[in-house]
Design brief:
By secondary structure, this protein is an alpha+beta fold. The protein is built from 6 helices and 26 strands. The longest helix is centred in the N-terminal third of the chain and has 10 residues. It comes from Zingiber officinale (Ginger).
């Protein structure tokens, strides 16, 4: 029966085989590779790999949320990952012992080793690439993949430093994987007490600055910063920017008495009208399940329109689908709390995994 199926598949023109396989997620293609040599030959062909890379389509079936490290500091640590499409947990071996993940994009992460030193890794292909040290008093804002190649850029920001009683100007640096060097870039328009996460939209990095509260944009071509908006909606805590369907959104917790979060809201920013509008908020019954004995802090992770809200104190996780606006609670992770260290990043495997 299997050989008959193989023969039917092999009788199809190669371009038709590729057209069919191009519609499938990488996780399914990995299974197909193991079924027959015919599938393996087509999937590994340069023409198919090139076409799949150019499509750059990402499937929810491939989405992986890396939420915890099991055995941090161990010689062979693993990540505890959540698969939203299956609502299930898996263990993912890590290629190197790491203590922190700074940022992620697609299949890549920028992380730090326990013994010091930063690197970029495709955790699924298990590649590790050391990067040159940043300048002192800096931290990483974002990792940006080059869609036309395997190159990437890393954007970092200098910390606020007082020198001789004077607050130094804040600026950013950009690391280019092609040159393997950090280069000084644009100066920030103001001093900010802190910066939030950075997201990429239409060639611009958008970042929230706090105190003063500004929506900032960094042009990756000119490497200059600008203030997009000087007003944020209400008084929000635990803010997080995200992009969905080329639209810009802000997640935040509504500040109640004594810094207690009383509601979690999602706002959308109109880039033309330059104003925020309410998109939705977490339903009361879901919020009560999420906050436990009181909510003072939460983390947000998103990718491909799936948003995870994580109460790291109670280890409870709420999932939100931006397309359907459906809220649901993720099943509990059975790993004991004492063995879990929070990392909180999303991955989507690359075509490199098929080679």
């Amino acid at each position: 029966m299997a050989s008959s199926s193989d023969s039917d598949w092999e009788r199809l023109p190669l371009n038709l085989q590729e057209s069919i396989l191009l519609l499938l997620p990488i996780s399914t293609l990995l299974v197909c590779k193991s079924l027959s040599r015919s599938f393996l030959h087509t999937i590994r062909s340069p023409s198919f790999l090139s076409a799949y890379s150019l499509r750059r389509s990402r499937h929810l079936d491939d989405l992986i949320f890396l939420l915890f490290i099991d055995g941090i500091g161990a010689r062979r640590p693993s990540a505890i990952a959540f698969l939203p499409i299956r609502a299930s947990w898996i263990h993912l071996p890590l290629p190197i012992s790491l203590c922190h993940i700074h940022t992620s994009s697609g299949c890549l992460v920028v992380a730090e080793k326990f013994e010091g030193g930063q690197f970029v890794s495709d955790l699924l292909c298990r590649t590790v690439t050391p990067i040159a040290p940043m300048s002192f008093h800096s931290y990483i804002l974002s990792l940006v993949e080059d869609e036309a190649s395997t190159d990437f850029k890393i954007v970092s920001s200098s910390k606020n430093v007082i020198d001789g009683g004077i607050l130094r100007p804040s600026y950013c640096q950009v690391y280019n994987s092609a040159s393997r060097r950090w280069e000084s870039s644009g100066q920030f328009p103001h001093h900010y007490a802190m910066l939030g996460n950075a997201i990429l939209l239409n060639g611009m990095l958008f970042v929230l600055g706090r105190d003063p509260d500004h929506l900032l944009a960094f042009d990756l071509k000119t490497r200059m910063w600008s203030v997009v908006d000087e007003e944020l909606p209400l008084s929000l805590l635990c803010f997080h920017l995200l992009v969905f369907e080329e639209r810009l959104f802000l997640v935040g917790g509504l500040d109640g008495e004594e810094l207690t979060i009383t509601r979690i809201e999602i706002w959308e920013y109109d880039l033309v009208e330059k104003q925020w509008g309410m998109f939705c908020f977490m339903p009361d019954e879901i919020f009560l399940q999420f906050c436990g004995n009181g909510l003072f802090n939460f983390d947000t992770i998103d990718q491909l329109g799936i948003v995870l809200f994580c109460n790291t104190r109670e280890f409870s996780i709420i999932m939100f689908d931006m397309s359907s606006k459906i809220w649901s609670r993720a099943p509990d992770c059975e790993q004991p709390k004492s063995r879990k260290s929070w990392i909180g990043h999303a991955l989507v495997p690359s075509v490199q995994l098929l080679k």
